[in-house]
Amino acid sequence: KKKEKKKEKKKRKKKEGKKRKGRKKEGRKKEKKGGEEGKKGEEKERKKKKKKRAEKKRKKKKKEKNK
After folding, report:
1. Distance CA 10, CA 14 (A)
2. What residues make up the domain containing 56?
3. Degrees to nearest 5, angle at CA 40 with 30 and 46
4. How many structural domains compose the chain?
5. What DSSP string describes 6-33?
6. How high is the mean pLDDT of the chain?
7. How far apart are CA 7 and CA 26, in angstroms?
8. How many whole angstroms from its chain centre is CA 39?
9. What is the rounded distance in angstroms from the CA atom of residue 11 to the CA atom of residue 17?
10. For residue range 11-34, what is the model confidence (pLDDT) as tens digits?
11. What is the pLDDT of residue 56?
12. Whole-number Å distance between alpha carbons of 20 and 32
């Protein structure tokens, strides 16, 4: 009886692990789907950063002129 219970527990644990693995794969699929969108987002971020950098440079030049 004890051995049978242990076997059942092991089976249950294996199944739980498989479920968890399945969830991980789903997340990966979502990432792959959003690949193009993700790239667009990155480009937008890069452009924003560029704009910020340009603004900082402009402000610096203004400060130096005022001196």
Report:
1. 6
2. 2-66
3. 125
4. 1
5. HHHHHHHHHHHHHHHHHHHHHHHHHHHH
6. 71
7. 29
8. 12
9. 10
10. 666 655 555 555 555 555 555 555
11. 92
12. 19
